[in-house]
Amino acid sequence: MKINKILKLKNNKYKITIDNEVITTNDNVILENGLLFKKEIDKTLYKKILSDTLFYDNYNDILKFVMKKVRSKKEIIEYINKFNFSSDNRKKIIDKLNDAHLIDDAKYASSYINDKLNLSKYGIDKIKKDLLLNNISIDIIDSEISKIENTKELEKLEKLILKKINSNHKYSNNYLKQKILNEMLTLGYKKDDIINVLNINLKDDNNILESEYNKNYNKLKQKYSGVELNNKIKYKLISKGFKVDEINTLLQKKAEE
Known about the structure:
Elements (H helix, E strand, L loop, with lengths): L2 E6 L4 E6 L2 E6 H6 L10 H26 L4 H8 L6 H13 L5 H15 L4 H10 L4 H8 L4 H17 L6 H14 L4 H11 L4 H15 L5 H14 L4 H13 L1
Antiparallel strand pairs: 1-2, 2-3
Helix pairs in contact: 5-6, 5-7, 6-7, 8-10, 9-10, 11-12, 12-13
């Protein structure tokens, strides 16, 4: 079989004409098979050119996937497994990626931790759990987390909690405290840190209690009166987490006005 022409294209591609058949391949195939110095090839080398071209086409697809953003080893292996590689070619690709330092779980963990701390609501425990689910070793995770200043997570936690507190206009402190605690635990913050921030920042809720009383009074007074009205209001306030003795004190105050 005769190599009639080899034409260099863009992006490390080559067009080879072999017995009037045109094959578009890449520079790795050209160099590894010494095609620049051959005018004649046999069927065995021809088949190898076709096989190598397919291999490098797939490899370049994998390379684009890996280069698009920092990937974990698990993600990369799962993507490689989508291709119909032999075990030898699969190992060859993984070795090439390793040699190019493109499989690096420490780098992935560092990137993931910083992204989630800066761009999400996640706390360290949630981030750690997600990394474990992605098959990142606990040693790598702990090593990368140790590089993060604890104050950074606490500042983020306080900002999230303050936003919740400042937007509250109807719940008691007890109800709000439990609600925020559950939410922040789900996001991966430590219980002691959450409680400390809540205790420092929660304000007196008497104004909210009276506001809720007035809102419910104006809403229910058209249908109820006297003891029945007070009981309806009392039930509504209890459902918001206000303490019975605080409600009774307010009801007594309102009765005396």
